[in-house]
Amino acid sequence: MDQHVIELEKLTKVYGDYTAVDQLSLMIRRGEIFGLLGPNGAGKSTTILMMMGLTEPTSGTVRVCGYDSTRNPLSVKQRVGYLPDDVGFYEELSGLENLLYTARLNKMSREMAVERATALLRRVGLEEASGKKAGTYSRGMRQRLGLADVLIKQPEVIILDEPTLGIDPEGVREFLQLIQELSRDEQITVLLSSHHLHQVQQICDRVGLFVGGRLLAVGTVSQLSQQLFAEEPFLIELHVQPGSTALYKKLLELPEVSRIERVDANRWRLSCTANIAPALTQLIVSSGEQLHSLTEKQYGLDEIYHRYFAGRDSDVRKMA
Amino acid sequence: MFEKWRNRNDAKVFHPFWVIVQKEVADHVHSWRFLILVGLLMLTCIGSLYTAMTTIRTAVPQDDSLNSFLFLKLFTVSDGTLPPFITFIGFLGPLLGIGMGFDAINAERNKGTLSRLISQPIYRDYVLNAKFTAALLVISVLLFGLGLLVMGLGLLAIGIPPSPEEFWRMIFFLLLSIVYIAFWLNLSILCSVRFKQAATSALSSIAVWIFFSVFFSLIIRLVANIAAPTEVATEETAVAYQQFIQNLSRLSPSQLFSDATTTMLTPSVRSLGPLTMEQIYGAIPSPLPLGQSLLLVWPQVTGLLAATLLCFALSYYLFMRQEIRSRS
C-alpha cells in the first residue's frame, strides 16, 4: 500500500505577481503528525487550500490519499477532514446540530450521525455544552467542536490550519494532547500548520519549515537543529557571580566555545561544538567565581526559527 | 405501522443536496427576515382585497355578466387609494426575492462556515443550487398560500365561484410571479457571491430593482422623445417607432412581468404590441381563451427565464472558481 498519504510535487501558486507557494515538494507518510511551520503569510494556508481542492494550483500536482485534489476533490474531501483557522459554526444551531449537519452531508443516516456525534462530543469534552447554541461557545470550545466536526466523517487524514490560535495555554496543551491521542488511537495522519513553534514541537513527528512560499528544511526537530546548527550543536547557559570580564575572556578562549551571548550581566549563553559542561564548571570555580547554575539547552524551534531569520538577513545584506 | 414507517425514515440517507435544502428552508422559516416579509405580504393581501371589495361593484359590466371574469377583477381593480394585488406583487416580489437571497453566500463566508461546508464531500454547485432551491420553495409555498387565501376570502366575500378558466388563470399568474421573483432571487444570489459584505450585496440588488422600477421608464421616455418621428411620418414608421420603444421597455424584467400578468388576469387584452385600425376592424370584442393568452405571454415568460438563467450562470461562473478562505 502507498505509504505516502500526501504528495505535493512542485506545487506553485501565484497571485498576480506575488508567488505565495513556490515549487513546493513534500511527502507525508501515513500515520505521522506533520507540522508545517512558518510565519504569517508564508503560504501555509494556501498550500492547505490546494490540498483540499479549495483553490487551484498555478502549476504542480497535489495528491492526497492517492487522489488528485484539483481534478477529484470529492474523493479527497471524503477522506480528509479540514479544520480551517478561525472555524465558524451556524450560531443559531446547537453544537450537536452543527455536527449532525456535517454528518448528514457525509451521507450518514440520522441514527448513525446522532450516535457518532454524541460519542465525539464526549471525546472532545463538550458533552454538557452539546445542546447549547454554537454562538455561545468560547474560542476553545469552538476549536474542540471543530475537531469533532472534522472527525465525524472518519477521515484518514486531518488537516488543521493554525489549530491553537487564540486558545489559552492550558487549552492548547489539552487540544494538542487530544490530537496526539487521536492520531495514535485511530491511525490518522495529521497535518497541522502553526507559527507557534514550541507547541508544534511537542507533538509533531516531523516538521517542515516554510518561509516565503518555500520549504527550507524538513525533518524531526533534532534533525533540523543538527542541520542548522552543525557547527555548534550545544547550548549551555551559565549563571555566574560576579561575572567578570576576565572570566568572559577566558571562556571565549576555550577552543570549543564559538560564541557567548550575554543574556544579562550574570547570565551567559555559550554556543559550543562539544558538551564541555564539566570543564566549564572547573574553570569557573578555579577562577574564584560562583557558579549558580549551569543548564544544557537543546535547540528548540524558536532558535531554529531565529537562526533562519538571522541567516536570511545576512543574505540580504550580502546582496546589498 | 407508524413504527415501521418511522424506522424506515430513520435509516434513510438523504442526498447531501437535499440535506442542504432542508437546512436552508429551516433557516428561512425561523428567521426574523422571513416573518417580516410574510407580514408585509399579508398586509398586501388584506389591503388589496379590501380595495377590490369596495370597487368591484362598479366593475361589474352591464351587458353580459357571464363572460366578464369578475373573479379575476379581485386581483386587478382598485379604488385608487391602494394598488391592486397584481401591482403589489410586482412591486413587493422583487423585495421578497432580494430579501431571501442577498446574503446567501457571503453570510456563510463571513461566519466562516463556507469553507467548512465546502470541505465536505459535496460539489460546490450544490451549495448554490440548494440555496436557490430552498428559497424558491419557500417563496412558492408563500405565494401560493397567499394567492389561494385571497381567492378564498374573495369567494366568501363576493359569493361568485371562479370558473375553471379563471382558476387556471390564477394559477398561471402565481407561477409567473414565482418566475419573476426567482429572477430577483438569482440576482441577489449573484450579488452575494460577488460582494463580500451582505450590506453591499443587498444595496446593489436594491439599486438594480429601483433602477428598473423607477428610472428605467424615465430613460425610455427620454429616448422616446429623442427618437420620435416627425409629424409627417408614414404609418409604417409610426408603428416601427412604437415597436422600438416597446422593445426597449421590455428590457426591464418588471415590464415583462407586468405585461405577462396583465394578460393573464385580464382576458380582454388581445395584444401587447401596437394594433392598427385594420387589425382591430372586424375583430369580435370578446376575451381571449386561456391558451391564446398563454401564447401571448410566452415571449415574456421566456425573457424572464432567460434573465434568471443569465444571473444563475454568472453566479455559477464566479463561485465555481472562487478561492474560499476561512473568513475572507
Automatic annotation (TrEMBL), chain A:
Pfam families: ABC_tran (PF00005). Keywords: ATP-binding, Nucleotide-binding, Transport. PROSITE patterns: ABC_TRANSPORTER_2. One of its GO terms (molecular function) is ATP hydrolysis activity. Residues 6-237 form the ABC transporter domain. Belongs to the ABC transporter superfamily. PANTHER family: ABC TRANSPORTER, ATP-BINDING PROTEIN. This is ABC-2 type transport system ATP-binding protein. It comes from Brevibacillus fulvus.
From TrEMBL, chain B:
The chain crosses the membrane at residues 32-53, 85-105, 126-158, 170-190, 202-224, 297-319. It holds the Pfam family ABC2_membrane_2. One of its GO terms (cellular component) is plasma membrane. The keyword Disulfide bond does not apply. Keywords: Membrane, Transmembrane, Transmembrane helix. One of its GO terms (molecular function) is ABC-type transporter activity. This is ABC-2 type transport system permease protein.
